[in-house]
Each structure stands twice: as structure tokens, then as C-alpha cells.
Amino acid sequence: MRLRATVAAVSGALALSALALPSAAQADGGHGSTGSAAAARAAQAVSAAKTAAKTGARSVAPAAAAASTPGQLDLTFSKLTVNGGKPIVVGTTLTKRVTTTYTVTHAADVNVLAKDFFLDVSIYRGSFDDPTNALFSDAAPVCKAVSTTVATCKGQIAVWPEFDLLGNADATKWKAMGFAIDYNGQDPENPDLGEVGFALQDKLGSALLQRASKQSVNASPEPVKKGKTLTVTGWLSRANFDDLKYHGYTAQPVKLQFRKKGSSTYTTVKTVKTNNKGDLKTTVKASVDGYWRYSFAGTSTTPAATATGDYVDVK
Predict the structure, then answer these.
(1) Cα–Cα distance list, 302 to 160, 163, 207, 215, 233 (Å)
(2) pLDDT tens figures, 75-133
(3) From which residue to which does the signal peptide run (predicted)?
């Protein structure tokens, strides 16, 4: 009884932050995902509470428990994919949503499809115990039982730049974790965390988040006489998460490419480096009709970007 009282006391204190109002969830990267963020915090809170309760006690709650019993749920996550393994490219305004898929393996008496059972995956930066930032879904995942102990789930990670991103440091590799909480009839808005079942699992994988990029091009004059000089300009820019605007991407090598009219293949003519404003400018000799474009290969923080070819008529 003393152990249970300790767990309940710690859980009650943690619940204040675990199940906060939407505004607090927004500050922590939840924006429209209050349910997911709250469930994750609740699971984290119960876990922390039971860890704290180990002090001076010989044992804690059983490692595995039925869905109707408080404590650690016999449940694990595996086979997680985020955005099909591709980077999450985020701009400055629109909410970006990418698909997650994963498998959940659980004890036969853990009902992951129950109405008061919540599970999902999230990605975070920093440490598991004290993340710098975290991103959740803004909709519950859809899970399907494939056996009495296995379910496959499809969800999403949502990124709303205005609320979720702290700055350009968020353009990096994020870690993935899974969480589940069985409320056991408790009110999800105000549960007694000592009465719920929970599961937390770290090291499920990773996801790369990048700053969206744009590449433009303009070849002039148009038309141009054969043998005359053609000036090709452009601008390479990328999303800035600090002020939610696009700024020039400086000192980056960009390929100037040409596709002859009637051909489907671009050939690299030269490589040009962006200046301190992200601008590109170079000259070439006009020879035949065709399309000119700039193509940026990308970096770890910024995806590739290629301009739509600008057609030049050579007289």
C-alpha cells in the first residue's frame, strides 16, 4: 500500500504537466495533436512515477499486466517507417503530414483496439527523458488486428511550422519512440495515473527533417542570336525556421544544365556557386534552341531543388 501511495502521489504531480491544455501542448510541439501529446506524457509520467517509487521498495508493479490492470503493458513496437524512409521536408506555412507505419505486438489480454486505449509513435530531438522538441500526430492511428497478439498500424507525424519548430536547429535527425496507454476506464482528461497501464519504447528508428528549398532560373535575352551571349540567372532559397521566411542559400554549388529542343535529357554545362544572397549568374554562348535550368543537389539539412527549364529560341 505504501508503494501504491507513493506512485499515486508522484503520478498526480506529473499529471498536471502530462495532461495539459492545448496551449501547453502547442508549446511542446503538439499544436493540433493534444491527444497524442497528452497520451505520450501520461505514459512518460506513469513510467517516471514508478521508477521514482523504486526507492526504498523491493519491487514495483509486474513487468507485464493485463489491460485492466495498472502497470507496465506487455506491448512492443517494431518495423517502424516514417515517410517511407524519406526526409520530412518542411516549409514555412503549411502543415506537413507524413505517414507512419508500424507493428504492435502485445499480450493476448491487452486490447489495443479498446476505446480507452491509445497508442502511437512520435519523433523527438535531444534525450528520451528530456527532449528538446517532439512531434506527434494530429489524428489517431488506424490499427488492424492481424492476430490475437499482433496489430499493424498506420498513422502520421504532423509538423506545423508556426508552433512545432523551435528554429533551424530542428533541421536534423530526429529519434523515434512509441507509447501506449490504457486508461482502464479513467477520464483521459483527468486520470489517476496510478490506475492506468502504459508502455514506452525508445530507439525505434530515426527520421531526417529538412528545410524546404526552391530554385529559380531565367535565361535572357529571349530570343537570342546564334553565337551571342546568353545570361542565365537564378535564386536558390530555403525555409528559415527562425523567422518562417525563405532566405537565399549562400555559397552552394549549383549545376547549370541544358536540354536541346526535341531531347529529353539535360546535360551539365558548368557549376556555379551562389553568392552571399543565394543568387546565381553566369554566361554561355547561344548555339541551338533549348531549355536552361539550375539544379541543386541538396545537403543534409536541405533537399535537392531543380528549376523548371527556361526555353530560349536561338535565331
Answers:
(1) 18, 20, 14, 12, 21
(2) 999 999 999 999 999 999 999 999 999 999 999 999 999 999 999 999 999 999 889 99
(3) 1-20
Q: In whole angstroms, give the CA distance from residue 30 to residue 160.
A: 9
3-state secondary structure of 206: strand
- The CATH code of domain 2-210 reads 2.60.40
312: Cβ contacts below 8 Å, ≥ 6 apart: 219, 222, 223, 224, 230, 286, 289, 290, 291, 292
Cα–Cα distance for residue pair 140/124, rounded to 1 Å: 18
**CATH topology for 213-312?**
Immunoglobulin-like (2.60.40)
- Written as nine digits, the cell of 161 is 511550422
Give the domain ranges of the chain: 2-210, 213-312
Taking the C-alpha atoms of residue 38 and residue 189, their distance in angstroms, rounded to an integer, is: 9
pTM comes to 0.81
Same fold? 2-210, 213-312: yes
